Amino acid sequence: MLKIYGGDRSSPSNKVRFTANVLGLQYEYIKVNLRAGEHRQPEFLKINPAGKIPAIDDGGFYLFESNAIIRYLADKNNSALYPKGLKERAIVDEWIDFGSMHVGAAMSKVTYNRLYAPSRGESVDERSIQDGLAFLGRFLPVVDDQLGKNKYVTGPTMTLADLNMLALLDPAEASEVDVSKYKNIVRWRNALKKEAFYTKCHKDYLDTVKDIMAGLKK
Ligand SMILES: N[C@@H](CCC(=O)N[C@@H](CS)C(=O)NCC(=O)O)C(=O)O
Q1: What is the residue-level pLDDT of the chain in tens, covering all 218 positions?
Q2: Quick check: 126 and 114 in contact, CB under 8 A?
Q3: Domain CATH code at residue 164
Q4: Does ligand 1 have an atom closer than 6 angstroms to the CB of 48?
């Protein structure tokens, strides 16, 4: 059976679970304890030499990097989540790349400093938070405009670009990034967060983070 190595607080890991859930795949979810350093142990480094989650083991075929994994899973299962047509696929790739490289990178700056650094006792980089917020202020309107034209990120049907963007935006509330003024993003996000592929993974990222944080304080 497919094995997904991940963590509940890891958005890239959740993205892989969202995709596997949409595809209706049976899989074993193996939580890697980053705090305990399990990702740096030799057994895990055989699966992902970069020592990061997510990673998968598909019958002895190892793969890391969430976007490579979701493309592989969709293609392997011949899914319309990753269209085969040259231009349709290019547009899905365009929005996956834009999401990860710009929206996700900016969100990470804020999430890291508002959520992770304090929970690890590391110093908080306020400048990085402001940079992240400025980039989000520039890029979220682009996503919002796109969702004003389409039901989903790339058109009338859901694709990997939606699952990627949904996971990237999941930490918004936990990181105190206000997305409420982006009405199309709100509409699209609220609808997707009710879907079984999402609720099977978690009720809401904010609740997941609160539970994990409460556990850390015990
Ligand atoms: N670009 C990677 C990001 C993976 C990543 O940074 N994962 C984090 C958890 S969200 C991790 O494993 N951190 C542990 C470390 O870097 O040591 C992907 O999309 O899979």
Answers
A1: 999 999 999 999 999 999 999 999 999 999 999 989 999 999 999 999 999 999 999 999 999 999 999 999 999 999 999 999 999 999 999 999 999 999 999 999 999 999 889 888 899 999 999 999 999 999 999 999 999 999 999 999 999 999 999 999 999 999 999 999 999 999 999 999 999 999 999 988 888 888 877 777 65
A2: no
A3: 1.20.1050.10
A4: no
Nearest CA residue ID for atom 17, ligand 1: 52
Taking CA atoms only, the protein residue closest to ligand 1 atom 13 is 52
Q: Tokens in use for 95?
A: 């929005």
Tell whether 136 and 105 lie within a shared domain. Answer: yes
Q: How far is the CA of 38 from the centre of ligand 1 (A)?
A: 13
> Over 111-153, what HEC string results?
HHHHHHHHHHCCCCCHHHHHHHHHHHHHHHHHHHHHHHHCCCC
Q: Determine the structural domain holding residue 27 and report its residue range.
A: 2-76
Q: Using N-to-C axis directions, what is the helix angle for 11-22 and 160-169, rounded to 10°? A: 140
- CB 152 within 8 Å of CB 96: no
Best residue for ligand 1 mutational test, from 52, 64, 69 (most atoms within 8 Å of Cβ): 52
What is the total count of domains within the chain? 2
53 lines ligand 1 (CB under 6 A): yes
CATH code at position 12: 3.40.30.10
For residue 81, is it within any domain? no
Q: How far is the CA of 185 from the centre of ligand 1 (A)?
A: 25
